[in-house]
Design goal:
19% helix, alpha/beta, 35% strand, 8-stranded mixed sheet, UDP N-Acetylglucosamine Acyltransferase, domain 1, 11-stranded parallel sheet, 3 helices
């Protein structure tokens, strides 16, 4: 299908199932985006060679950059959050990862499922991290191991809700008593892993 981004039609997309794509997002080349995912304002996805594959329920936040390497595709799993100004370049992220604001992950790197890449971290080429790693620094290293998959999935659900609201022209998804009730119910679902069946 043809995706319109920034007011102009760009390359043919083969698999775009995103819940919401901001009008200012830019998507070029062979890109697949899973159901329930969102691409936020001024995010850029470019795949001039190789391909970009993004799982379901993942969010690419404002000003994030997802690009491929000459020899490396970019794969981002389900329930991931790529925060503002982060760069994900020719690497692989497992399910339920959170990449912090301004972090950089380079070609051939592999981030295990349920990991956190701290804001400002720079993951060099070909570095591999086990599931559940907390990764920080320049160059990045694992500073801890902990179970973060459920907390990371909660972040993805928050962005899913936000995308639903934005799609309807509403911009206050995280405010008020209805939101607090939703958050408590969603947290209970996540604790029992019931959310994995609902997505």
């Amino acid at each position: 299908m043809s995706v319109r981004s920034g007011g102009a039609a760009y390359m043919q997309m083969q698999e775009i199932h995103a819940l919401w794509i901001a009008p200012s997002a830019q998507i070029f080349g062979r890109v697949a985006i899973g159901a329930g995912s969102s691409v936020w304002h001024n995010a850029v996805l470019r795949a001039e060679c190789q391909e970009i594959r993004i799982g379901r329920m993942t969010n690419l936040q404002d000003f994030s950059m997802v690009h491929v390497g000459y020899d490396d595709a970019t794969t981002i799993g389900d329930f991931c959050s790529i925060a503002h100004h982060a760069t994900v370049h020719g690497c692989t992220l497992g399910d339920a990862c959170l990449v912090g604001i301004g972090a950089v992950i380079m070609d051939g790197a592999v981030i295990g499922a349920g990991s956190i890449v701290a804001g400002g971290a720079v993951v060099p080429e070909r570095r591999r991290f086990e599931p559940g790693s907390v990764i920080a620094g320049v160059p990045a290293r694992a500073i801890a191991v902990r179970e973060s998959a459920r907390a990371n999935r909660m972040n993805a659900w928050l962005y899913h809700r936000n995308a639903q609201f934005y799609r309807e022209g509403r911009h206050r998804a995280w405010d008020g008593p209805e939101f607090e009730a939703w958050r408590r119910a969603k947290q209970a679902e996540i604790e029992g892993d019931l959310d994995l069946r609902l997505a």
